[in-house]
Specification:
Layout (H helix, E strand, L loop, with lengths): L1 E4 L5 H14 L11 H11 L3 E6 L2 E10 L9 E8 L8 H15 L4 E7 L3 H9 L3 E12 L2 E11 L4
Parallel strand pairs: 4-5
Antiparallel strand pairs: 1-2, 2-3, 3-4, 5-7, 6-7
Helix pairs in contact: 1-2
GO molecular function: acyltransferase activity, transferring groups other than amino-acyl groups
Organism: Ruegeria intermedia
InterPro entries: Acyl_CoA_acyltransferase, GNAT_dom
């Protein structure tokens, strides 16, 4: 599996991964699918802060980050997203994506990475714990999808100096 910066031409495959998660799971609270064009815009804007996992010439996962909140006090805090195709899970690609993303984040001046995880996704909580993230909070019933109120688990990792 190859981990590399995303290219705008990866947007169709990334949209496929993202939109399947939106349609079929409670992993994300959003119900809005994304177009390849909007994802291509994100890739262009984020540069190396948008990484993909490629296997057999196919994008099977991605990880990216953006600013956690607005305002100069949050300049060194980023919130990330990571999603994998189901067949790519358990192959080490997620770990490698996060390692690459952390490296880019450090070079970008990030001090903290934040993960907002659906409590309906305990595998993601375990995954992040294994990568050194600490659970710092749980926000009951802040998400709503499929007629259900959902909890958000907040985790963070202090990157510190490399």
């Amino acid at each position: 599996m190859i981990i590399r910066p995303a290219r705008t031409r990866d947007a169709v495959e990334i949209a496929g991964i993202f939109n399947r998660v939106v349609r079929d799971t409670l992993v994300t609270f959003t119900t809005q699918e994304r177009s390849p064009a909007s994802i291509a815009e994100d890739i262009a804007a984020r540069g190396p802060a948008f990484q993909v996992a490629e296997w057999q010439n196919r994008v099977v996962g991605f990880a990216t980050y953006g600013q956690f909140r607005t305002g100069p006090g949050y300049d060194a805090t980023r919130e990330h997203t990571i999603m994998l195709d189901p067949q790519a899970q358990g192959q080490g690609g997620g770990r490698r994506l996060m390692e690459a993303l952390e490296q880019v984040a450090r070079a970008d001046g990030a001090h903290v990475l934040v993960a907002g995880i659906s409590a309906e996704n305990p595998a993601a909580v375990s995954f992040h714990s294994a990568l050194g993230f600490t659970q710092v909070g749980r926000m009951p019933e802040v998400g709503y999808k499929w007629g259900r109120w959902l909890d958000l688990v907040l985790m963070q990792k202090i990157l510190g100096p490399e």
